[in-house]
Design brief:
single chain, alpha/beta, two-stranded antiparallel sheet, 277 residues, 32% helix, Spore Coat Polysaccharide Biosynthesis Protein SpsA, Chain A, 5-stranded mixed β-barrel, 10 helices
């Protein structure tokens, strides 16, 4: 299963500024968060990226990724009807093929020296030939920010889990009852990383989940997909940084810096700051 196309969602009202923030990359040069996200996808082998944006936002986003424009299409979400509806807008762009879905308000930093996070997921999905969600073990104090899965460990060596159930932003009490995964540390759950490999039939499931009365979520459609076919979760070697979270941009920038060739310099500055504090 060769994945050539990616969809990146950046249409969430009130948060469209996040992908446009300037950050310092691993080489010490300024880039927008959006450009960093796109480089992640392109370096993983993606040929075309459809970016879902709010109405009127395409020119601003196009300017933020100068030099990458030939690989990018912009897709408008006319109304703010939820994450699932934003994904649904990419139906024609995907054109019946399986695709990589990435969220636009996260940065991903791999701890694998040879493969970025997107490439890890794409290779694992290709080997399994199944729909797959990247996941990260997350403390119960943070699970209210993420979709969370319940399932069973299928292959420890490959970091694969068989998904049985998923809940969007559960409470710790709900997670304890419904989403425990054997083998995780106490108080930790497998939460979405922000990267998915999905079949084109997800669009039909999103249509079925739309009752016309409110936002369309992605998680209910993924839950239905997991009931109808094999759906795996893959624990990525890396960390996601949610730019929307409190201090999210700061933490993402620190993580980038500590993952760069300037690591020693940054650590030295941090030690000095901490000594003064």
């Amino acid at each position: 299963m060769k994945i050539r196309t990616a969809v990146l969602t950046a249409a969430k009202r009130g948060h469209t500024h996040l992908p446009l923030q300037t950050m310092i990359d691993r080489e010490g040069y300024p880039q927008t968060a959006l450009a960093l996200q796109l480089r992640e996808l392109i370096d993983a082998g993606i040929e075309r990226v459809g970016i879902v944006v709010a109405p009127g936002q395409a020119p601003i986003f196009r300017e933020a990724v100068s030099g990458l424009g030939a690989r990018i299409d912009f897709i408008e979400q006319p109304e703010a009807r939820g994450f699932g509806d934003a994904v649904r807008r990419a139906r024609d762009f995907v054109n019946g093929e399986a695709f990589l879905l990435a969220v636009g308000d996260h940065l991903f930093i791999s701890t694998n020296p040879d493969k970025n996070c997107a490439r890890q997921l794409l290779e694992r999905a290709a080997a399994s030939e199944t729909a797959m969600a990247a996941v990260q073990a997350t403390h119960e104090s943070e699970i209210g920010l993420y979709g969370t899965i319940g399932g069973v460990l299928e292959d420890r060596e490959r970091g694969l889990f068989r998904v049985r159930h998923m809940v969007e932003k559960p409470t710790p009490t709900q997670a304890e009852v419904e989403l425990l995964v054997p083998g995780l540390r106490s108080g930790h759950y497998l939460c979405f990383f922000g990267l998915h490999v999905l079949p084109a039939r997800i669009f039909d499931l999103l249509d079925a989940a739309d009752d016309g009365n409110g936002p369309v979520g992605l998680t209910p459609a993924l839950e239905r997909l997991a009931q109808e076919e094999t759906f795996h979760a893959f624990e990525i070697e890396g960390r996601r940084y949610n730019l929307e979270a409190r201090h999210g941009l700061l933490l993402a920038q620190l993580a980038l810096a500590l993952n760069s060739r300037h690591r020693e310099e940054i650590l030295e500055h941090l030690v000095r700051l901490l000594a003064k504090a």
